[in-house]
């Protein structure tokens, strides 16, 4: 668990030799003043230069950053934008992404051809995305879409809302037990649900089950205490063993890598149906390609699963003629589950922690393992 907002004193640079923190982020500068002032308050020897990187509906507008700032920058904080090559930022000590993953830059020369440490903002999304997952599951299980349609038609039809399945005793399977999955587990346990966890690597000891990343205070599962059972592995047999556990809500929270692409496809949907004839509800807050989308559409039409809540699709934005729009029992939102009015504040906290660690010669939090892809 990472304690934020404090820590040991960090060495200051020689007076008059201020380090430059270059920010290229998708918020107007006035909206993130709290984060910028936090940097300046803690690190008296830094200068912050901010550029608004306009981003909308999955696309970012071109951004021009003067070469003088690229040459001087010691730290770069960004969401999507990167300079063209490692040579463009010769003095950068680390790049702090304000995103949970870095798969969107995995083919960039800075990712493939440099050793500049890349750090994610993993952990800042846990509360709001977990709320989205639980909200969508409750919306579906309480028939809210049907009831809202009836309200628009000004119709009072009680039987439309009578077939409710409450959550007590249901099983939540979390595929990818990271910061988001751990907060989903906390909320699920509060509703009286059973939680089982899946990780790529075995977590057989209490120490291995602890969360060593950034944690929003009071959230998550820092010590890995909520799951009643743990599963692990990267081969199909291990994943299938997990999917056989009569899961009522399956939460996809894995990073997108070569091995997780189409992790759920025809075979997996059939397995879920066989394990739980009541029907598994799937919530995908990972990345769209984690699911084989045509296979998902088929599963929805043939009642192999109870339904799906998708904040991510393949591709994004989802084309207007994609059959997923009209599939039964599907709820789609446009990649917004991670949105929060304190998102940027939390991400700046991660940047501050990594600056402390870099200056103190300690390991960085949320550093990306380029070999694993996350």
Tell me what the structure shows.
InterPro entries: D-isomer_DH_CS1 (IPR029752), D-isomer_DH_NAD-bd (IPR006140), NAD(P)-bd_dom_sf (IPR036291). Keywords: NAD, Oxidoreductase. It comes from Paraphoma chrysanthemicola. There is one protein chain. The relative contact order is 0.15. The protein is globular and about 70 Å long. A seven-stranded parallel β-sheet has the order 10-9-8-11-12-13-14, sandwiched between helices. The chain is α/β, with parallel strands linked by helices and about 375 residues long. Helix 1 packs parallel to helix 10. About 25% of the residues lie in helices and about 15% in strands.
Fraction in beta strands? 15-25%
Tally of separate helices:
10
How many strands in all?
Answer: 14
- Gyration radius over CA: 22 Å
> First CA to last CA: what distance?
18 Å
Q: Roughly how much helix do the residues carry, as a percent range?
A: 25-40%
Mean pLDDT across every amino acid position: 94
Global outline: globular
Taken in chain order, the helices and strands follow as EHEEEHEEHEHHEHEEHEHEHEEH
Question: What is the SS-derived class?
Answer: alpha/beta
Order of adjacent strands in the largest pleated sheet = 10-9-8-11-12-13-14
Structural topology:
Elements: E1 19-25, H1 33-42, E2 46-52, E3 55-56, E4 59-60, H2 67-72, E5 73-78, E6 94-97, H3 109-112, E7 118-119, H4 126-141, H5 144-152, E8 171-175, H6 179-190, E9 194-199, E10 229-232, H7 236-243, E11 249-252, H8 266-275, E12 281-284, H9 293-301, E13 307-310, E14 330-332, H10 343-359
Parallel strand pairs: 1-2, 1-5, 5-6, 6-7, 8-9, 8-11, 9-10, 11-12, 12-13, 13-14
Antiparallel strand pairs: 3-4
Helix pairs in contact: 1-10, 4-6
InterPro entries: D-isomer_DH_CS1 (IPR029752), D-isomer_DH_NAD-bd (IPR006140), NAD(P)-bd_dom_sf (IPR036291)
GO molecular function: NAD binding; oxidoreductase activity
Pfam families: 2-Hacid_dh_C
């Amino acid at each position: 668990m990472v304690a934020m907002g404090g820590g040991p004193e960090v060495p200051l640079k020689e007076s008059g030799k201020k380090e430059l923190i270059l920010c290229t982020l998708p918020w107007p500068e006035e909206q993130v003043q709290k984060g910028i002032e936090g940097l300046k308050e803690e690190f008296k020897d830094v200068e912050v230069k901010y550029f608004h990187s306009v981003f909308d509906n999955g696309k970012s507008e071109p951004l021009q950053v003067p070469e003088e700032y690229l040459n001087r920058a010691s730290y770069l904080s960004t969401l999507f934008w990167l300079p063209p090559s490692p040579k463009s930022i010769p003095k950068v000590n680390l790049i702090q992404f304000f995103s949970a993953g870095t798969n969107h830059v995995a083919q960039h020369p800075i990712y493939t051809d440099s050793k500049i440490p890349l750090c994610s903002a993993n952990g800042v999304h846990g509360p709001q995305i977990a709320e989205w997952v639980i909200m969508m599951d409750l919306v579906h299980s309480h028939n809210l879409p049907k009831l809202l349609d009836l309200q628009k038609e000004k119709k009072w039809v009680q039987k439309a809302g009578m077939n409710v399945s409450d959550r007590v005793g249901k099983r939540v399977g979390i595929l990818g037990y990271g910061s988001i999955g751990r907060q989903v587990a906390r909320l699920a346990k509060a509703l009286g649900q059973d939680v089982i966890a899946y990780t790529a690597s075995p977590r057989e000891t209490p120490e291995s089950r602890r969360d060593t990343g950034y944690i929003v205070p009071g959230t998550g599962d820092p010590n890995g205490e909520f799951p009643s059972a743990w599963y692990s592995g990267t081969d199909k047999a291990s994943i299938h063993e997990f999917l056989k556990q009569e899961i009522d809500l399956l939460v996809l929270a894995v990073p997108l890598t070569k091995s997780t692409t189409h992790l759920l496809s025809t075979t997996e949907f059939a397995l879920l149906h066989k394990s739980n004839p009541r029907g598994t509800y799937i919530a995908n807050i990972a990345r769209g390609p984690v699911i084989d989308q045509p296979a998902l559409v088929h599963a929805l039409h043939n009642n192999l699963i109870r339904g799906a809540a998708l904040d991510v699709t393949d591709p994004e934005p989802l084309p207007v003629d994609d059959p997923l729009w009209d599939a039964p029992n599907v709820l789609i939102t446009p990649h917004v589950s991670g949105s929060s009015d304190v998102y940027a504040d939390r991400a700046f906290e991660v940047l501050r922690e990594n600056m402390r660690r870099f200056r103190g010669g300690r390991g960085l939090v949320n550093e990306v393992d380029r070999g694993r892809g996350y």
